[in-house]
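JOB MANIFEST
job_type = single_chain_structure
chain_count = 1
residues = 271
[input]
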Amino acid sequence: MEEPLIPLVPMSHTAHIRSHRKPRNRSASNLAMRAGVAGGVLSMAAVGAAASANAAEPVTQTLELPTLTADMATQVAQSAEATQQAAADYQLQAERDAAAAKAAKQAKADLALAQKKAEAKKKAEEARKAAAESATRSSARTVLSTTTTASAPSGSVGTVISFLKAQVGDAYVMGGTGPNAWDCSGLVQAAFRQVGVDLPRVSQDQSTVGTDVSLSNLQVGDILYWGAKGSAYHVGVYIGNGQYLDAANPSKGVVIQDLSGYPATGAVRVL
């Protein structure tokens, strides 16, 4: 197959001759603009390079310290002095607190020791007093025993009085019936039981037995009572010479007392 023929265009007779156009003048503004663009590109390249370098190395920032003036130096000195004073105050307060705690602890210990000594002293005094009372009772019983032997009434009355005087110094206990502690009616009942007389147990009933006796005509062995007949609250036994013997109360125990100091309400005679 044959290729198509391309028609040839005839060239101008001047085609081989260079153009006679003058080169265009590039103005200074165009050059400046191109230079600015190039500079900008270079600047951007420099910034990029600097950023890469900064990313690779840490940034070190230098701060400029203020100048230390005389006023600032004074303030710093005062602040340091105040700090030192505060520390000294704290230390002093801590020492005072420790001393106070130690003093309180010592005071507590001293108080406990003083209380212990006082208690021991009290017990010793009570023991001494008990021993003295025991000795006094023994002495009184000895004297009374001698006196009774010399001048005791004869017969049943003498036996009653001897028994009563032998109990002097014993304790008073409400409801007591012996042998070392009595109440008033328990002692009287026990004394008359020595001679076979069976008296009632309580004062009210004992005031109603036997024969009524005038207080101006008392005899040894008569039963004295205090309070109304049949409702008496206390009894004792007349032992002569204006005296009676009774279990008086918890503070006195069994004692001999003067009838004038505590006059009876009435009396009965059973012997």
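[summary]
Residues 152-269 form a domain with the endopeptidase fold (from Nostoc punctiforme) fold (CATH 3.90.1720.10).
Strands lie at 171-172, 181-182, 211-213, 223-226, 234-240, 243-249, 253-258, 266-269.
exit_status = 0
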